[in-house]
């Protein structure tokens, strides 16, 4: 199944004249394809609730102090918005990395769960809101049909909801259903922390009061700290710092902003403190990092 799926994706990309490396959007909203012909340096981004599937090659993603590695026919499921560093660890021109990212639709997930005769119970696992698992035959079949439907321009609007419902069904009835269902439970700790994260993301460049975030999450200060760290593998202030550093990196690479301007733009008062934090996070000084990232052609 792995090789056949990878071949199907390759045929789809080649038929559209896509390059050998890059991130390619599709006609299905929230479905993207990644093909890379070489290993990559760590790339920072904020992961949304999504299914990240590797069809060929391998990848590693670092969330705070926790690293998840997964290879062919495995997936990473992210249940809450988290800044992370991801890198492709297995890829070559002869056997490129091929992956698919699929944003999860909480509305459809909630609908499917409500229709189950025996909805899953949330697991007692107190770990980070991310896990890695093998791609089941049922989910792989959904992905195979998704790729085939991309050739039909009329398919997305009509068939996308049905296939998303099927994907949600297999996730909610599979071995990790107890984790997946936490995304949509009405008063779960995950949902409450997600509300605070939404506020933090919208105001990451401003000073943050943890008491305010705890109030938004409807938790005591100690409980908020505990559950935020449990779900994201970092404290709220560390989370904010990751957001600032990732945005500053994007500004310097994509918009040619200098180090000092980027630092001030994301909320730092001291460029020297920004540079120290940057080195601690990315292991390299900002200017040198930007030069290396610009030289890396995707």
Automatic annotation (TrEMBL):
<dbReference type="InterPro" id="IPR009057">
    <property type="entry name" value="Homeodomain-like_sf"/>
</dbReference>
<keyword id="KW-0805">Transcription regulation</keyword>
<dbReference type="InterPro" id="IPR009594">
    <property type="entry name" value="Tscrpt_reg_HTH_AraC_N"/>
</dbReference>
<dbReference type="Pfam" id="PF12833">
    <property type="entry name" value="HTH_18"/>
</dbReference>
<keyword id="KW-0804">Transcription</keyword>
<dbReference type="Pfam" id="PF06719">
    <property type="entry name" value="AraC_N"/>
</dbReference>
<protein>
    <submittedName>
        <fullName>Helix-turn-helix domain-containing protein</fullName>
    </submittedName>
</protein>
<feature type="domain" description="HTH araC/xylS-type">
    <location>
        <begin position="194"/>
        <end position="292"/>
    </location>
</feature>
<dbReference type="InterPro" id="IPR018060">
    <property type="entry name" value="HTH_AraC"/>
</dbReference>
């Amino acid at each position: 199944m792995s090789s056949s799926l990878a071949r199907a994706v390759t045929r789809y990309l080649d038929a559209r004249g896509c390059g050998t490396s890059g991130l390619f959007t599709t006609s299905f909203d929230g479905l993207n394809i990644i093909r890379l012909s070489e290993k990559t340096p760590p790339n920072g981004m904020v992961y949304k609730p999504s299914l990240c599937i590797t069809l060929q090659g391998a990848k590693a993603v670092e969330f705070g102090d926790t690293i998840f590695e997964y290879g062919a026919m495995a997936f990473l499921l992210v249940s809450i918005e988290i800044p992370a560093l991801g890198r492709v660890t297995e890829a070559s021109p002869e056997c490129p990395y091929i992956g698919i990212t699929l944003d999860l639709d909480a509305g459809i997930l909630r609908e499917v769960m409500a229709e189950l005769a025996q909805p899953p119970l949330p697991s007692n696992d107190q770990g980070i809101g991310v896990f890695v698992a093998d791609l089941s035959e049922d989910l792989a079949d959904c992905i195979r049909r998704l790729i085939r439907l991309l050739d039909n321009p009329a398919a997305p609007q009509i068939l996308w909801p049905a296939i998303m419902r099927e994907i949600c069904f297999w996730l909610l009835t599979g071995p990790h259903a107890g984790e997946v269902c936490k995304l949509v439970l009405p008063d779960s700790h995950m949902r409450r922390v997600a509300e605070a994260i939404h506020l933090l993301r919208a105001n990451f460049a401003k000073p943050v009061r943890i008491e305010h975030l705890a109030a938004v999450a409807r938790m005591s200060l100690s409980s908020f700290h505990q559950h935020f760290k449990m779900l994201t593998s970092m404290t709220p202030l560390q989370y904010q710092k990751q957001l600032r550093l990732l945005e500053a990196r994007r500004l310097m690479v994509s918009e040619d902003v200098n180090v000092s301007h980027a630092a001030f733009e994301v909320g730092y008062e001291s460029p020297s403190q920004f540079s120290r934090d940057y080195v601690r996070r990315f292991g390299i000084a900002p200017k040198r990092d930007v030069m290396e990232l610009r030289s890396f052609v995707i």
